[in-house]
Amino acid sequence: MDNKILFVDDEAPILQGYRRILHREFPVSTANGGAQGLATIRVAGPFAVVVSDMRMPGMNGAEFLAKVQEKAPDTVRMLLTGYSDLDAAIDAVNQGNIFRYLTKPCPKDVLLKAIQSGVEKYRTTQANNELVKKARVVAGCASDWNPLEVAQVDGFEQSAGLPGPTEAREFLESIFKGDRQGYVVLIKLTVLKILEDRYGPDAASDYLNSSIQFVLHSIGSVDRIFHLRRDELMIVIRRPLSATAMKIEMHRLMQERRDFIVDVNGRQTMVAAPTTFDVQPVSRFSNFDDIVTAFEARLTGTF
């Protein structure tokens, strides 16, 4: 359940009030004080949102929410405070990554709207975590990297207007017959299939085209890019770079491309989009098939 809410206060009547006014909208749990709140999280968590009063004996709200962050970093944390504690609450928000502070007494509509925003943020975080987890599984799956499939798919239909594997083979074979200088980079868009399953083919297509445009704007004029398979791009770098400089450049490039905004029914959601890449010097190989085989055997740099 991804919409569980926990209220923490040292006054039982206030906790009963929260449960009474919000139980129809959310599964509400309560805890009397910070120590009981941490125990509740340990036994009944995770919670999407934890709302704590600021002024409590033994452990104030800011201290309690700091401990919540350590134990449940994805949980959205909110602080309820009176005007006399406002400066402390603002400091807690600024220093402790608290999502929001609310002043007491807090009207139901204000509290409800804040919690709804917190639940949405929690769900987005969980969805991103799941995408990253699945992407890492996909990236580590050797069966997903079949060199024979890449080498033999001459009828591959590119959906992004780029030259495909046949053109990549021909271009590299011409280099093998010449100076054999440069690097080949294979980029695997590890979340493409996941985006398609979760958000539909349009989102996957947008991600593919966005990734291609990003790469096109990042490579040099003498470099070439190919659409090797649906979720794989191949770049041939012809600039005179050292192996170390080449890997640093690709590392920097992939670091810049870690998130993607999905537009679903007019609503934008940012998702994590880790990318797997590998860099191989052309001089190490004598033909296209050997390069593809090397990519299957050795993948580095998941970001």
Principal-axis shape:
elongated
* Class by alpha and beta content: alpha/beta
When the domains are counted, the total is: 2
The low-confidence runs, each spanning 5 or more residues with pLDDT under 50, are 137-159
Helicity range of the residues?
40-55%
Largest sheet: number of strands, sense, barrel closure: 5 strands, parallel
- Distance separating the two termini: 29 Å
* CATH-defined architecture of the largest domain: 2-Layer Sandwich
**CATH 4th-level superfamily of the largest domain:** Reverse transcriptase/Diguanylate cyclase domain
How are the strands of the largest sheet arranged? 2-1-3-4-5
Strand content: 15-25%
CATH topology of the largest domain: Alpha-Beta Plaits
Order of helices and strands: EHEHEHEHEHHHEHHEEHEEEHE
Mean pLDDT: 79
Tally of strands = 12
The CATH top-level class label of the largest domain: Alpha Beta
* Rg: 26 Å
Number of helices: 11
Short précis:
With 303 residues, the chain is of the alpha/beta class. It has helices spanning 12-22, 34-44, 61-71, 86-96, 108-139, 147-152, 165-176, 192-199, 201-216, 243-256, 288-297; strands at residues 5-9, 28-32, 49-53, 76-81, 100-103, 183-188, 224-229, 232-237, 259-264, 267-272, 276-281, 300-302.
